[in-house]
Amino acid sequence: MEIYNTLSKKVENFKALKEGLVTMYTCGPTVYNYVHIGNLRTFIFYDMVKRAFKFNDYKVKHVMNITDVDDKTIKGAIESRVSLKEYTELYTKYFMEDLEKLNVDMDIKFTKATDNIDEMQKIIAKLLKEGYAYEAEDGIYFSVSKFKDYGKLSGMKVNGDYSRIKTDEYDKDNAADFALWKYWDTNDGKVHWEGKLKKGRPGWHIECSAMSMKYLGKTIDIHCGAVDLIFPHHENEIAQSESYSKQKFVDYWLHGEHLLVNNQKMSKSLNNFYTLRDLEKQGFNPLSFRLMVIDSHYRNKLDFNFENLRKYEKLLGKIDLSIKALNKTKKYDEKEDSYSRIQTKQKVDNELQAFKEAVNNDLNTHEALQHFLSLLDLADEKTEKGKIDNKEFSALSNAISKMNGFLGVYIDYEIPQEMIALAEEREKKRKDKDFVAADLLRQRISENGYFIADLPNTFVITKKYLD
Ligand SMILES: [Zn+2]
Question: Which residues contact 447 (CB under 8 A, 6 or more apart)?
């Protein structure tokens, strides 16, 4: 597998630390609000990275943090007059729902920052003892000048005139000593911990270092984030982790590009700030957004607009229909290898091979999707003929499900019995040439959110998609 490593700024051949296993840490959400679709693009990117390794038969140990203590969560909780725990648990719940709706592979160890405070204190105490960190009146800071490799990920230079920064978000043009531990002040309300260190709370950067090392080991294979995390967040993670462990922190750093809305940065003031719920309110299936993300390369900016999303919603409907129709097409057994059977097998093998090459070429998901769609076109041809040889069906169906194991754009679902009954009644009316009654039944099915398509000799029901 070839992947682009931000650390070397090259596409590299991936080599795991332990054969057959990938240890992967991805920076998770700060749970102070609903995540927006720009964040969701990043979480789909993580999912594609993980699925790519699984597609190549690696086992993946994936850890994602939930940042449930930082400047924003504390502020949000105080303003809402609830405890930090209640406040962050609510947004964690919404976040998990979003991931499920986007068909993210939930084989993830989620861990909350507040459950790992001891680990953070242990690291900070050692950094302090060894002189990488120092105490100031308002907290404990990491001294960037003490880490000689500072800047190796982002290219940021330490020129000596850096300042000291306590807040989580700071001027992105200058290296600065950053807070590892912030001593309690009245802004933090009831939020504070004690133990190895004076009453206070962790800085954001140390949270990820502590959780990555604790759950995955001092050196791991993969660390992912959005491009805006390269500096200072990931640079700082490297500095504090490597100073602590005296080992390389991460072998491969992967970063996903941003999402724009109508070519502009998303912001509340421009009124172009969307969550997944906003898309659903307009009738979109969440998977149409996943499809849109997959159709672009993770290292390119993705321009979101509703017109474009509509195209993916339509494509999603086509995928759903093609797969369901293929499954419902009548099967028969050819006695021996027919020309058609040989041709189908050849086509399936070629597409699967090309698909794999695309996945392994720094996650060329756009191209992988094209090979998937090409197999669905072949499925449509068979469906239109009204019958398919059993061996051709298995070859096609297995390849489609293997590809979907990576893409995750098709999820099987139950059609309510009531809808099936209506569809069967409609089929009868059609055969009796009572087309008015048949149309009324189709309309009833549609009003219930389902769509009925006619196949040679039968019919298929899917969810209804926007057109
Ligand atoms: Zn992080």
Answer: none
The Å distance, Cα 179 to ligand 1 centre, comes to 15
Q: What angle do CA 336, 340, 342 make, to 5 degrees?
A: 70
Distance (Å, whole) CA 334 – CA 167: 70
Distance (angstroms) between ligand 1 centre and the Cα of 409 equals: 28
Residues 167 and 86 in one domain: yes
Tell me the HSE value of 235 on the side-chain side, using a 13 A CA sphere: 28
| Minimum mean pLDDT range among 10-14, 218-222, 244-248, 268-272 | 268-272
Residue 160 is predicted with a pLDDT of 65
Give the chain's domain count.
3
What is the distance in A from the centroid of ligand 1 to the CA of 178?
Answer: 14
Shared-domain flag, residues 185 and 320: no
Q: Give residue 28 CA to ligand 1 midpoint distance, Å.
A: 7
Whether 292 is covered by a domain: the verdict is: no
pLDDT of residue 440: 97
Asked, for residue 298, whether it belongs to a domain, the answer is no
Q: Provide the residue range defining the domain that includes 454.
A: 417-463
Is 212 in contact with 223 (CB distance < 8 Å)?
A: yes
Give the pLDDT confidence score for residue 161 in this predicted structure.
Answer: 60
Residue 465 and residue 285 in contact, taking contact as beta carbons nearer than 8 Å: yes
**Lookup: tokens for 217:** 């080991």
Widest distance between CA atoms in the chain: 88
186-228 pLDDT, tens digit each = 999 999 999 999 999 999 999 999 999 999 999 999 999 999 9
Ligand 1 centroid to residue 239 C-alpha, Å: 13
Q: Which two tokens stand for residue 467?
A: 């057109």
* AA letter at 45: F
Would you say residue 63 lies in a domain? yes
What tokens were used for 12?
């590299």
Predicted model pTM: 0.96
Let me know: does 147 contact 243? Beta carbons within 8 Å: yes
